[in-house]
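okkk here we go again. third time trying to get the flavin-adenine dinucleotide bound version out, last two times i messed up the smiles copy paste (missing a bracket lol). double checked this time i swear
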Amino acid sequence: MYPAPFRYHRPASLGEAIQMLSALGESAKPLAGGQTLIPILKLRMDEPTDLVDITHLPDLRHTVERDGWIEIGALSPHGWVAKSDIAASIPIVKDCAGGIADVQVRSRGTIGGSISAADPSGDWPTLLRTLDAEVLCSGPDGNRAIPVQDFNTAAYTTALAVGELVVGVRFKRPRAGSAGSYIAYKKSAAAFPVCSVGIQLTLDPGSVCRDVRIVLGGVGPTARRAMQAEAELRGKTLSDSLWARAADAASAIAEPNSDARGTAEFKHSLLRGLLLKSAHTAMYRCANASIEGSHVYG
Ligand SMILES: Cc1cc2nc3c(=O)[nH]c(=O)nc-3n(C[C@H](O)[C@H](O)[C@H](O)COP(=O)(O)OP(=O)(O)OC[C@H]3O[C@@H](n4cnc5c(N)ncnc54)[C@H](O)[C@@H]3O)c2cc1C
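finally!!
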């Protein structure tokens, strides 16, 4: 199907894009990589009157590290992030960016578009919550940084105001002794995850868990932090049985639907398996082992 007619705009600067979007109002949409928006338009699931193409805006495709924060520009494509220095030094970022969809989608789709689309199964929202990230926004009322858990307010819904754009995300570089792992289960490369798990772990000598964050994707309207699972681990010497208890606690807060990708029961069991796999990778990485993360394909 062809999209419904729309007017196309190509602003030359971020300021001009914000001005246009504010003036055009809610019936206008920013267009980034188009990997979500174009299929939606072609299916006529949305019929915006105006598309504001932000793809060519300067200065929004970058990774920068300053004052302890790592910032990734909104227009950075997934595949580009996967090959960045940041991904090389923080493997959990590469786990996520390098596993999104296929080469075609990874080379066009952007991190800003992905979190703005707010798909409950999206990889970036889960990963960014694992890293306790903030979303950097710029709009008619100025700039603001929104904690990622407050940015995705419901499935396919964000806290963005009319005319406001995501300009980047930022998170603190994990400290020494801390490492993470992100794993998603997918039916094929060109499909969203059925569910996913991100773990960021900080170990003291003797495999004692100083701190841990565990976040689940695809098992509710937004990425979900498994705080009871974290409490099972914090301050204790890690063991297989302790991780199994954490996996059960994580499964208890998951609310997956039964659908074409599997029954709810299957997804609960899948989630536990992904958590244990991710835990092992994170533990090895805490010990400075270099392990390639990879998603699991069904
Ligand atoms: C076949 C296929 C497989 C996929 N598999 C996966 C997968 O495994 N995992 C995964 O996470 N994703 C997957 N995706 C989605 C993909 O990651 C998209 O890149 C992403 O969801 C949207 O990014 P985009 O840059 O293409 O945004 P667009 O499609 O251009 O925009 C998406 C939405 O965000 C808005 N928007 C875009 N940029 C901004 C901004 N800077 N500020 C405010 N609003 C903005 C748009 O108006 C639109 O509503 C898949 C997509 C396809 C087509």
